[in-house]
Design a protein that fits this description.
single chain; mainly beta
Length: about 150
C-alpha cells in the first residue's frame, strides 16, 4: 500500500461501513488523513482503531470537500485507539470537532512528536482509564491535556 493516497476517495452513501469493528492501517506512507469526517461519523460499530507507521498522516479524521465548520462525532463503541510512529500527526481531528467516545478506555500513542492536541473541539471520554503517550502514562480522562503535556511541554 505504499502508493495509497486516499482510502475512501469518493462520497459514500450513509451507513457505509457501519458494521466495521476493527480498522488497522499500516505503512501507508502517502496518506495525509485516514477518514473523511462524514465517513467516520457513520462507523457506529467501530471498537478498535490502529494507525501505525504512516509517515505523512497529519490527522486521523480529515476534512471533506468544501471544508468544515464545527463537526460533532459520536463513536459509541470505540474502546481502543493506537497511534504509533506517525511523525507528522498534529491531532486526531485537525478542524474544530466535538468528539464523544463514551466507551473509550485506552489510548496508546508512540512516536507522534508533532502532536499538538487530540482535538480542537470538546472531548468527552468518560470511561478513559489509561492514556499512554510514549513513556508518559496518564490515568485521568483529560486526553487533550495529556497529549499537550507529553509532547509540547517536554
Amino acid at each position: 500500500m505504499e502508493g495509497l493516497i486516499e482510502i475512501w476517495p469518493l462520497q459514500l452513501p450513509p451507513g457505509s461501513f457501519h458494521q466495521l469493528k476493527i480498522i488497522y492501517v499500516h505503512k501507508c506512507d502517502k496518506l495525509r488523513s485516514i477518514f473523511p469526517s462524514n465517513l467516520f461519523q457513520n462507523m457506529w460499530s467501530l471498537r478498535a482503531l490502529t494507525v501505525d507507521s504512516c509517515k505523512t498522516v497529519k490527522e486521523i479524521i480529515g476534512d471533506v470537500a468544501g471544508g468544515l465548520g464545527h463537526t460533532k462525532v459520536l463513536m459509541p463503541h470505540l474502546e481502543y485507539i493506537k497511534l504509533w510512529s506517525l511523525p507528522m500527526l498534529k491531532s486526531f481531528c485537525h478542524h474544530r470537532c466535538d468528539f464523544r467516545c463514551p466507551s473509550l478506555t485506552t489510548v496508546d500513542m508512540r512516536n507522534c512528536q508533532e502532536m499538538e492536541t487530540f482535538t480542537y473541539g470538546n472531548l468527552k471520554t468518560p470511561m478513559l482509564k489509561s492514556t499512554y503517550v510514549d513513556s508518559y502514562k496518564q490515568y485521568e480522562n483529560d486526553l487533550n491535556s495529556t497529549v499537550r503535556y507529553a509532547y509540547q511541554e517536554h
